[in-house]
Every structure is written in C-alpha cells, then in structure tokens.
Amino acid sequence: MRRLIAAAVVAIVGTLAGAQDFSGLARLDVTQSVVRDEGRGIAFDLYLSQSVPWRVFTLDEPRRLVMDFREIDWHGASKDQLLQSERVEDLRFGALRPGWSRLVVDLARPVVISTAEMQVNTVDGTAAVHVVMDLATEEAFAATVGAPPDPGWDMLQSVDVTEAPAEPIDDGMLVVAVDPGHGGIDPGAERGGLKEADVMLQLASELTEALNRVGGMRAIMTRKVDQFVPLEERMTIARLAGADVFVSLHADALEGDELTSGATVYTLSPEAANDASSRMAERHDRGDLLAGLDLSGQDDTVATVLMDLARLETGPASISLANTLIVALDDAGASVADTPRREAALAVLNSADFPSVLVEVGFLSNVKDREALRRPEGRARIAAGIVLGLQRWAAEQAAINDLKRR
Asked: What 3-state DSSP class applies to 251?
C-alpha cells in the first residue's frame, strides 16, 4: 500500500510540475476546505484556485500527517474553520521555504493513507485535493511512515547537507552563527500580538548587524526570512559557514505565569550530551558530523567516539560562554532572570564541533519583557549584551589557546 500511495503522489507531482509554469500563488478556498471525520477515518478536502505540485506523507514522534505544496496563499484560513475532526489533535499551516508551503496535522490515532488525489477542473483550472486516512494499527502506521523518495523535492532543502564544510579561514575573525528560533509553520510562542518567530528574526537581524560592525567578528544567520528550517539543518548551515560559535535566540511564554521574566541561557545537559553523539551519528550524513572531518565510511561507534572527544573541548567552552553572556546581558541593562543559568536536552545544541548556547531573551508571557522586545531600544540592550558577552568570551578563549600552545 505504501508503494502504491508513494508512486501515486510522485506521479502527481511530476505531472503537475511539468504541465505548466506557475506564475501566481494558488489560493485556498476557505469556504469549502475542511478536515473532517469520515467513516472510521479522516478526510481532507482542500480547494485551490489552481493546480500545484504537492505530496502527502506521515511522520512519527510525534504522529502527524504532512502535506507539501507549491506555495499557497493561506489568507483568510484559520484552524478553527478548517479543523472539523475529533480524530485530529492540532493543525497548522504556513511557509516552508520561499515558494513552498506545508500543512501539518497532529494525529490522535495511527492511520494510513488510503486515497491521495488532486482533481483539476478543465474549464476554470481550479483544483480539489482529496486525501482519506483510515484508522490503523500502530504496526501498519509505522510501516508507512516517511516521505516518498523523490529527487524532485530536493528543492525544499535550503542547503546541500552533503556539501563539504567550509575550509577554516585563519583571518582572526570569530564566525558567529545567529539562529532566530522557529519560523514559517512554526511561529513559536504568541502573546500580546507578538509572535516569537517574528521577534527573534528582528532581533537576530539587529544582532547580526551589530556583530558585523565590531572588529574581529563575522555573523551569519540560519534563516533570514519567515520560513521553517529544521533544527538539525540549522547546525548544518552554521557548519557550512565555518561557524566558531552558535547562538540560538528564543522568547518563551509560560501558561498561567505572567510574573517570570528576564533572560536565561541554556547549554546541553550532561545527560543529553552523552546521548547526543549517538543520535547525531544515526541521523546525520557522515560528511556533516564534524566540520573539517569527513566520517564517510566510518561506523556509528567511530563517529560517536570522535564527537565525544570534540565535546571535551566544545562542552566546557559552551558553559563558559553561557556564564559570560549572563553577566554581559546584566551589564548592558537587559533583564536577567533570577535563575538565569540552565541546562536542557535541546536538539539545536547537539553539535559537537562548535560551542552552542540557547538564549531565552525573555518571556512573552511577561508584560515588561514583551514590551522590551517590542521596542527597538529594548532589543538593543539585549543585542549589546550578547555582543559584549561574545567579545569577553572570545578574549578568554584566545588566552586559553595561547596557554595551550605554550
């Protein structure tokens, strides 16, 4: 069944992609489109103003259905209007890459795709997408999980993860990867008219500009627009840019808590670090595990050992950076939490080959933090603190490296 569905979806994509050159966005007809219960399963009826390349597949952990499209105009669409099924836990949609869109449905129960078709009206060119998913066993669901293999969808990758990492340039510049959290179909926390993804993109742009103005630093961003970038791909972008350090920016919101405020800085917890190398070895291309070192042809044991050795240096450097950033943020006048230093099993901190920290710059659930992030002067204090922290940390690391060379 999986081969039949995958073949059908690939055929649809190939036929549509070659049929015409799409010059405008396909618009979703919000009055007709719906996700509903049908018999013992779930039906998706999406009505578009024109046909577009598309595909559909399921993923696990968490269990969900994914539908990718050539870019769709979602204007006027809402979850409350689309979602009419009690067998679906949640639904979200938005930009995936420039020119491409994604709809994600969190499934309450295991299902398998039984129907996946797009019917095009030959008179007016409108299209109707109809997908039916039948309830299934956990075993049947697991057997059908994964995107159908199709090189035509490689365009969704923002970087080529098989590309060799950049050769280190010994120009004395500290290369900082600035990572704006969330984006696209993943807006992050939302409070008081602010979306975490939007605010972090604005802050990241301002921080990057500030870093590029000071001497001795060069900053790059893992995303420059409101688009979804997978967590592991963010590390790949940093690696290909020859990053020396990785700083991920977030602003959380706590349910029922409007008092907690101030910046916190996370590093990978020791327990998570012990497991991170194994997970990275299993999930990443061998050429993308450590910058400057191609592990192609090596088994998981060798790759894991080498990454653990790399963490003997980058782990303590991450902790040092986190501690330095906290002091610098406070010195710059940014709000700092009562307990600002934290550790967690965060996937975006898994990289072994450069120090990594995640900075929760504040809480959108707190009025003062929210207003600080809304105003340019509030964001400026945060950016100044991070720049100051990176400068102090870079000087400290340079001194340590001098001692090692002696």
From this structure: strand
Reduced to 3 states (helix: H, G, I; strand: E, B; else coil), residue 387 is helix
Q: 357 near 316, Cβ under 8 Å?
A: no
Query: Please, where are the H alpha helices in 214-360?
Result: 231-240, 270-283, 300-331
pLDDT score recorded for residue 133: 93
**Domain 174-405 falls in which CATH fold?**
Aminopeptidase (3.40.630)
d(CA 215, CA 379): 21
Q: What residue ranges of the chain are covered by domains with CATH 3.40.630.40?
A: 174-405
pTM of structure: 0.63
Please provide the CATH number assigned to the domain covering 2-156. 2.60.40.3500
Reference 102, options 186, 196, 201, 3; nearest CA is 186
Mean pLDDT of the chain: 80
**Distance, C-alpha 59 to centroid of its chain:** 16
pLDDT > 70: percent of the chain: 76
* Confidence bin at 222 (pLDDT 50/70/90): very high
* CA–CA distances in Å: residue 364 to residues 111, 171, 184, 348: 36, 39, 19, 21
pLDDT of residue 295: 35
Average pLDDT over residues 339-345: 89
Q: Is 230 helix (H, G, I), strand (E, B) or coil?
A: coil
Rg value, the chain, Cα: 23
Judge whether 126 and 49 are in contact, CB under 8 Å.
yes
- Report the pLDDT value the prediction gives residue 7, as an integer from 0 to 100: 35
Whether the CB-CB separation of 383 and 210 falls below 8 Å is answered with yes
In the prediction, which pLDDT does 198 show?
A: 96
| Position 168 confidence tier, pLDDT thresholds 50, 70, 90 | low
Q: Which residue ranges does the chain devote to CATH 2.60.40.3500?
A: 2-156
How far apart CA 355 and CA 371 sit, in angstroms, is: 31
* DSSP one-letter string for 45-111: EEEESS---EEEEEETTTTEEEEEEE-EE-TT--HHHHEE-TTEEEEEEEEEETTEEEEEEEESS-E
> What percent of the chain stands above pLDDT 90?
47
Using alpha carbons, list the distances in angstroms from residue 72 to 54, 106, 128, 241, 345: 11, 20, 13, 31, 35
